[in-house]
């Protein structure tokens, strides 16, 4: 059955995927994920093409070669259709999310095999099923944290989901199911199908991390359980997260249509708490309520909005076309509004004054910007630009008070996006050659020039900026992916070379070996060991390559016992064969190889004959005898011990840094730069950091990072939503004043 090969089926598939409305934040995730998976899948198909060509090149017969070329042709012809089918199936998963937990979402696909069902499955199907299950299991283990966070958040967004029946359209089992469904159109045999699955695992499933992180970021930005973090124990945390989600869902449903002057009930607790503390301050200062003074004309609501509409947008910048000039400037909003009221005094002679609610809002906006413009986590260029938005944000807040209570408020969402996008800037000099900075600059200028009180402008700019960021993030993610792969390969190669050198050094140093044998091991066989180390996780050849070294050294010793000499006769032919085969595999110089093997045979023959010259290959004498002499530690060693003891507490903080976290390094010369943790290569104890474009900027070990943190030369930057952090800081400051 080739149900997906026709246009009719693709149209049906697309219509099925759009048969129900999808939440806005899920639509953004769907578009990002579908595009990202499409890019990754192209890499997988390119690798499949290379693999099949290599196999055809090395085929043992014409029939085998034709089989691989036919498979290449089949895949090339139907590749675009498979890619479209896969992307459509993934998109449909977002519209109608399958239940998480099963390996396949389709009844027509095999489920996890059991002992009772294995006999009913064909050999080819069983091989494919085992490969898929291994792929899914590995992905779930590797991305356990992001997957759990995403499932919890998706289960909040989709109303039909529950804790017992969670959903996650991006679960590995659903993506694998979509791919196996898409490749049903390919008329290829099981071996080629397994190659296709292997490359899908390598290029798509193994790189899901960046898409999972982006999906979590979008949902956090939308206010869906922003503070939920996974640390490996799913039970209680999942329950706590679901409790938070339940509260958030109920609050959002209760305020789906808020009035202009009302605060959302679910999240208004923070704003109410702030108002209570401000009211307490007024009472302590002896300020009576405004409504009780007949000589005061209280201004608020539509009247205040009318006055604010005449307020110039940009009081902080002298030139509208040079927003980035100078330092961040804090505007005294209270003074600006008082001057505005004084210029518009009532004819009845009453003193104009704000009502208490609007006064609290203005004070709160002032405190928020005090925090924002003093926030170390914001890069300096972004602080300068955001400081220009104080008057527009004041107008927004007076007109739409849900800014403080609604995490998805357009203006609040835009500010959070601007701050998050600019976290990677290290120096303001970058702004002269950075397209992203130009984009942010144009957004701020657009608001200053065109905002007339209509909050929809913020929504329009926020959506445009999110789309722009999604495109830029896809590009940066692909570069970062290549950077990670390159660094993993480089570090693994470096470790392989270090391991080979150490093993040979230890083994060769213990014996007096002829120069020719030393040359064979160090300049020839070391290459074989290097390649074996790199392939060891697949072919398990490392120990075999080391055993050849041990056998060679053993055979070079004179053996006087009959059983040892019999063993020598059995070992040597296989040893010579293994040495030649290994050196030929690494393309060792053929002319030198024959000469080298001749010298080897000569040395082995001489060793066999030297029955009476065992002393020629005796082990070197021990470097010392008896107990080693205890020497007191030097001053440098004592200082190193103190350093290691002091840095121990910082190692735990380094281990808490997660992939994707931004940090700032301060150099000795006073300069600084920001970068993102892209990869932790455990086998080499190496932390790799990249810039905003995904390019590597630095790598350090765990201990080196701990030393940097201890000396104050490395700071982990906070990446939570800017306004959320600002509100938390404001509440803390007011509590301190009240306390």
From TrEMBL:
Start and end residues of each stretch annotated as Disordered: 1-23, 95-117, 233-263
Basic and acidic residues bias locations: 237-246
Coiled-coil regions listed: none
Transmembrane segments: none
InterPro entries linked to this entry: DUF1631
Polar residues biased stretches: 102-117, 247-263
Protein name: Thymidine phosphorylase
Species of provenance: Marinobacter lipolyticus SM19
């Amino acid at each position: 059955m080739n149900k997906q090969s026709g246009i009719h089926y693709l149209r049906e598939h697309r219509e099925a995927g759009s048969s129900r409305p999808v939440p806005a934040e899920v639509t953004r995730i769907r578009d990002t994920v579908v595009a990202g998976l499409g890019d990754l899948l192209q890499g997988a198909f390119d690798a499949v093409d290379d693999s099949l060509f290599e196999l055809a090149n090395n085929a043992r017969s014409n029939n085998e070669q034709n089989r691989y070329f036919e498979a290449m042709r089949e895949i090339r012809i139907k590749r675009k259709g498979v890619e479209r089918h896969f992307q459509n199936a993934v998109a449909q998963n977002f519209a109608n999310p399958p239940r998480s937990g099963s390996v396949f979402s389709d009844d027509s696909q095999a489920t996890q095999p059991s002992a009772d069902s294995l006999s009913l499955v064909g050999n080819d199907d069983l091989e494919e099923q085992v490969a898929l299950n291994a792929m899914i299991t590995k992905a779930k283990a590797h991305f356990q944290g992001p997957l759990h966070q995403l499932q919890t958040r998706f289960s909040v967004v989709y109303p039909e989901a529950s804790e017992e029946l969670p959903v996650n359209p991006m679960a590995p089992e659903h993506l694998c199911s979509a791919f196996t469904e898409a490749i049903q159109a390919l008329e290829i045999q099981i071996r080629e199908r397994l190659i296709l699955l292997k490359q899908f695992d390598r290029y798509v499933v193994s790189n899901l991390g960046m898409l999972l992180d982006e999906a979590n970021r979008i949902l956090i930005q939308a206010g869906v359980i922003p503070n939920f973090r996974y640390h490996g124990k799913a039970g209680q945390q999942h329950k706590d997260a679901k409790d938070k989600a339940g509260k958030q869902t109920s609050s959002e449903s209760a305020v789906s249509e808020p009035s202009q002057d009302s605060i959302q009930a679910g999240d208004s607790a923070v704003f109410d708490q702030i108002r209570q503390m401000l009211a307490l301050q007024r009472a302590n200062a002896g300020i009576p309520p405004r409504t009780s003074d007949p000589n005061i004309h209280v201004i608020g609501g539509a009247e205040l909005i009318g006055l604010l509409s005449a307020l110039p947008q940009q009081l902080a910048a002298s030139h509208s076309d040079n927003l980035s000039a100078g330092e961040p400037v804090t505007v005294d909003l209270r003074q600006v509004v008082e001057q505005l009221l004084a210029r518009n005094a009532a004819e009845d002679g009453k003193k104009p004054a704000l009502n208490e609610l609007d006064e609290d809002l203005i004070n709160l906006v002032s405190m928020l910007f005090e925090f924002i413009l003093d926030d170390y986590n914001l890069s300096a260029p972004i602080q300068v630009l955001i400081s220009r938005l104080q008057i527009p944000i004041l107008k927004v807040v007076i007109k739409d008070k849900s800014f403080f209570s609604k995490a998805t408020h357009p203006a609040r969402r835009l500010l959070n996006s601007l701050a998050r996008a600019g976290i990677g800037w290290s120096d303001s000099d970058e702004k002269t050659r950075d397209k992203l900075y130009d984009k942010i600059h144009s957004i701020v200028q657009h608001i200053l020039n065109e905002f007339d009180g209509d909050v929809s402008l913020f929504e329009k700019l926020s959506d445009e900026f999110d789309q722009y960021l999604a495109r830029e993030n896809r590009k940066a993610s692909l570069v970062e992916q290549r950077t990670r792969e390159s660094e993993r390969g480089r570090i693994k190669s470096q470790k392989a070379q270090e391991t080979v050198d150490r093993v040979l050094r230890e083994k060769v140093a213990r014996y007096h070996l002829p120069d020719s044998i030393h040359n064979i091991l160090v300049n020839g066989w070391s290459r074989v060991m290097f390649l074996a180390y790199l392939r060891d996780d697949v072919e398990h050849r490392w120990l075999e390559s080391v055993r050849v070294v041990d056998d060679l050294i053993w055979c070079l010793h004179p053996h006087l016992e009959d059983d040892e000499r019999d063993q020598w006769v059995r070992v040597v032919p296989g040893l010579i064969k293994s040495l030649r085969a290994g050196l030929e595999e690494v393309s060792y110089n053929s002319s030198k190889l024959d000469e080298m093997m001749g010298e080897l045979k000569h040395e082995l023959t001489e060793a066999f004959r030297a029955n009476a010259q065992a002393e020629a290959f005796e082990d070197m004498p021990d470097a010392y005898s008896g107990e080693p002499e205890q020497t007191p530690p030097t001053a440098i060693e004592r200082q190193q011990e103190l350093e290691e003891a002091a840095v121990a507490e910082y190692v735990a903080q380094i281990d808490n840094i997660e992939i994707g976290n931004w940090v700032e390094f301060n150099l000795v010369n006073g300069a600084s730069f920001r970068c993102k943790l892209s990869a932790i290569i455990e086998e080499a104890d190496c932390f790799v950091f990249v810039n905003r474009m995904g390019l590597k900027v630095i790598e350090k070990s765990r201990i080196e990072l701990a030393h940097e943190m201890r000396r104050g030369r490395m700071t982990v930057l906070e990446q939570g939503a800017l306004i959320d952090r600002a509100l938390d800081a404001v509440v803390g400051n007011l509590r301190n004043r009240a306390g």
